[in-house]
Amino acid sequence: SYELTQPPSVSVSPGQTASITCSGDKLGDKYASWYQHKPGQSPVLVIYQDTKRPSGIPERLSGSNSGNTATLTISGTQAMDEADYYCQAWDSSTGVFGGGTKLTVL
Amino acid sequence: VQLVESGGGLVQPGVSLRLSCAASGFTFTTYSMNWVRQAPGKGLEWLSYISSSGSTVYYASSVKGRFTISRDNAQNSLYLQMDSLRDEDTAVYYCARDGPASGYYFDFWGQGTLVTVSS
Fold first, then answer.
1. Do A48 and B103 touch (CB under 8 A)?
2. Span A24-68, pLDDT tens digits
3. A9, A44, A65, A86: which could form a disulfide with A50 (CB 3.0–4.6 Å)?
4. What are the CB-based long-range contacts (under 8 Å, 24+) for A53-56?
């Protein structure tokens, strides 16, 4: 079965840039999306179709996808960005999530 | 857009449970829908997809043969019939709308309903 691999945790200082990677076989040939999930809340779509931002998502969140790796980049990280982030893709009519990355803003 | 799940609760292993998701604020009949869950301390897990008409369904291998997704477009409702429940099915269950035109992403999520399977 298809797998997406994310680092369990990423730490960043306020104002700095955080990058969260998502690796999967030929992931660049698929669409990747990213979700922000805070405790007690529902997940929120932050990036879809590799690079697109839904309405209301700050421009400092951006995405890329090439080769075997998709990346979520958060520029000028703020305390409000602290959350779990999940990548997601489809393979053979099956939805697949990465294991999630806990972003800590120190 | 509003998605409201219901039907969760505490059940014993082996029993059945049906979750519902009431949709409003958009034209339900034109969107595919999904169920996703999160077990305690674990990540998100996609479970099932249903097309806008209900004619096409997909399942994760972990629930195929035990769970059944369905929808009632006249009632703007999505369902998940869960049979032969196991301890490992304990999770918060979310319904999630597919992006427009089968966009391969989930653009809106409900608040979730907790299912606890325990004897």
1. yes
2. 999 999 999 999 999 999 999 999 999 999 999 999 999 999 999
3. A65
4. A54/B107
